[in-house]
Amino acid sequence: MSERERKPQAYYDEIKAKFAAERDLRLAYRPEGTAQFTSDLDGDPVLAKYAADPYVEEIIEREPIDDEVEVLFIGGGFSALLTAARLREVGVESIRIVERGADVGGTWYWNRYPGVACDVIAYDYLPLLDEMGYVPTRHYAEGWEILEHCRAIARRYDLYDLAVFQTTVTSTIWDAEARQWVLGTDRGDTMRARFVICANGTLSKPKLAKIAGMETFAGHSFHTSRWDYEYTGEKLEKLHDKVVGIIGTGATAVQAIPNLAENAKELYVFQRTPSSIDIKNDWETDPEWAAKLQPGWQAKRRQKAMTAPPLSVTQIEERAQLSPEEKLRRQENANIDYMMRIHKRIDEIVEDPVTADALKPWYMFMCKRPCFHNEYLPSFNRPNVHLVDTHGKGITEVGPKGPIFEGVEYELDLLIYATGFEVQKTGIWNRIVGETGVELNDKYADGVRTVLGIHTHGYPNLFIMGGYQASFNFNLTDVLQQQGDHIAACIAYVRSHGFETIDPTYDAEEWWVQEVIAHRGKTNRNAECTPGYYNFEGESNRRQDGNYNGGFPAYVQHMASVRDRMEECFTFS
Ligand code: NDP
Q1: Distance 278 CA to ligand 1 centre (A)
Q2: Strands 205-206, 421-422: pairing kind
Q3: Ligand 1 centroid – CA 314 distance (Å)
Q4: How far is the CA of 409 from the centre of ligand 1 (A)?
Q5: Best substitution site from 32, 120, 205, 249 to test ligand 1's pocket, by max atoms within 8 Å of Cβ?
Q6: pTM here?
Q7: Calpha distance 527→507 (Å, rounded)
Q8: Which of 235, 265, 434, 561 could form a disulfide with 458 if both were Cys (CB 3.0 to 4.6 A apart)?
Q9: pLDDT in tens, the chain (573 residues)
Q10: Is the separation of the CB atoms in 439 and 546 below 8 Å?
């Protein structure tokens, strides 16, 4: 009999009740939900500096562009790179990336904070490893390696030729007569494109908590995705005589804090809700293993990851006898066991029992993004590191000296906002106007409407990546690669059949909306979770605005079935 089976259900119920109490505490503090944050930083007299690009070496001055390409990507991160590679494979020559940053890379362009790495296994996470003949140097790649890989893809597929950097697309308008999209930018450009792919990322806009008095802070401050190495020094050596504070303890802060702890004179960590921190089982890639990899090895890994190991006959019989409630209960109990192991690990590592207790997350596994790090918890044993636990309340005020909590103003030289990113719900940030003159945001006013999260009726030749109504997967690259392959196949179909446009039918769109709805609301998980960006900060959300919850393999099968029924799902002209 396993240890789990020996614990009475009352043990689990008690922990669940504590999870609920912690969630309610946070909801009571922040009933405004997502409105507690802002990501409208551009143009704001106080906040614009938090979105400015600190990595750009030279601001390029140029004349507005007025030209035409076949495929245009809005955004130059993974979505654009892996789809562009597939488009090259099917013979598309004219491909342009338009990107706000000064290079490709997306997330990995912007996030250069010390310690930045990806805790999804690199052999699965980095795109196009087969095509690039590249094997990552570590089991979990560091940020610089991923950014360099992005640049290598752009070079290999000649994506720099037509790329336009330091430029933000502001409008995308369908010209029905020319059967083209016409894009406007913040540089006064008029770019025409046959196909447009919204590849602007799911978590790409830095977000700040609306904290009273932020503008009065007299010290230096920045957001983690705009790290000011001028101020900190490349190796944080300029922080040796500085008192540093960081607001937020999500996945970004967890990676940055150990480096700050080592280098700052004093470090104050302002915590609202702790992250769950598990072991990061990292290693350098074994060259002998890498040398033995056969062509197509990454594609095989991806395929394998999609196929769950077969259940034994006993397991199948056992499961068949369980009621849905019992299945859910077992799953929850297993999740609670996981979280209690996370608690035990904290007690084993963190020496001060009060700090250890404050670092314990009280919510169900996966209510927030789980983290993996070996140096984060030990950082709190250093004498220069101070945890300011706000127990769900958060920082609500900043004064000239620094954050204020319970009447104490913490005097800092540097304040770092690790407050995360706005969630990209619709896959669009700019003004997109389709065939009937309706803006896409207005079309979505009563709920997102797409086919597979990618196509939307009345917006021909427009493809959306990483938005809602697509499947969720812990390895986002898997989703993006499937979407990229699908989009390239659609464009190849249009070209090879002598068409110019592809538009999903209303019926296909309605089918997918209903498919999304059918898989939502099967559990109370979202409502029961502590607030965070996974559950819209505790806001209830409309039934079709969210991910497709039928599972990633089913999502991939649906894509294939759409491609098998092209003439039924789309109109072509
Ligand atoms: P998150 O949104 O995950 O974290 C924001 C943090 O700010 C939370 O701890 C939040 O607390 C805190 N916060 C917000 N407002 C306040 C306030 N007023 N006072 C105190 N604290 C506050 O952003 P991250 O940048 O950490 O991560 C975003 C995502 O990026 C991750 O979830 C992950 O998907 C991805 N990422 C992935 C990595 C990887 O290894 N693959 C590494 C880094 C990031 P609360 O929890 O209470 O809301």
Answers
A1: 16
A2: antiparallel
A3: 42
A4: 23
A5: 249
A6: 0.96
A7: 31
A8: 434
A9: 455 567 999 999 999 999 999 999 999 999 999 999 999 999 999 999 999 999 999 999 999 999 999 999 999 999 999 999 999 999 999 999 999 999 999 999 999 999 999 999 999 999 999 999 999 999 999 999 999 999 999 999 999 999 999 999 999 999 999 999 999 999 999 999 999 999 999 899 999 999 999 999 999 999 999 999 999 999 999 999 999 999 999 999 999 999 999 999 999 999 999 999 999 999 999 999 999 999 999 999 998 888 777 777 787 787 788 888 888 899 999 999 999 999 999 999 999 999 999 999 999 999 999 999 999 999 999 999 999 999 999 999 999 999 999 999 999 999 999 999 998 878 788 999 999 999 999 999 989 999 999 999 999 999 999 989 999 888 999 999 999 999 999 999 999 999 999 999 999 999 999 999 999 866 677 788 999 988 888 877 667 788 899 999 999 999 999 999 999 999 999
A10: no
What is the token pair recorded at 122?
Answer: 């690199």
CA distance 196 to 491: 11
CA 57 – CA 223 distance, rounded (Å)? 19
Rounded CA-CA distance 49/399 in Å is 18
| Bridge partners, residue 142, by sequence | 117
Instruction: Give me the amino acid identity at 517.
Output: I
Strand runs labelled E in 35-94: 37-38, 66-74
β-pair partners for 277: 371
Question: Where does ligand 1 bind, in terms of residues with CB under 6 Å?
Answer: 117-120, 203, 209, 211, 247-253, 255, 270, 272-273, 369, 394-395, 418-421, 532-533
What is the three-state SS of 415-471?
EEECCCEECCCCCCCCEEECCCCCEHHHHHHHCCCCECCCECCCCCCEEECCCCCCE
Structure tokens at 230: 């001028």
- Cα 153 to chain centroid distance, Å, stands at 21
Report the 3 state secondary structure along 337-373: HHHHHHHHHHHHHCCCHHHHHHCCCCCCCCCCCCEEC
d(CA 351, CA 357): 10
Read out DSSP for 91-125?
T---EEEE-SSSSS-THHHH---TT-B--S-HHHH
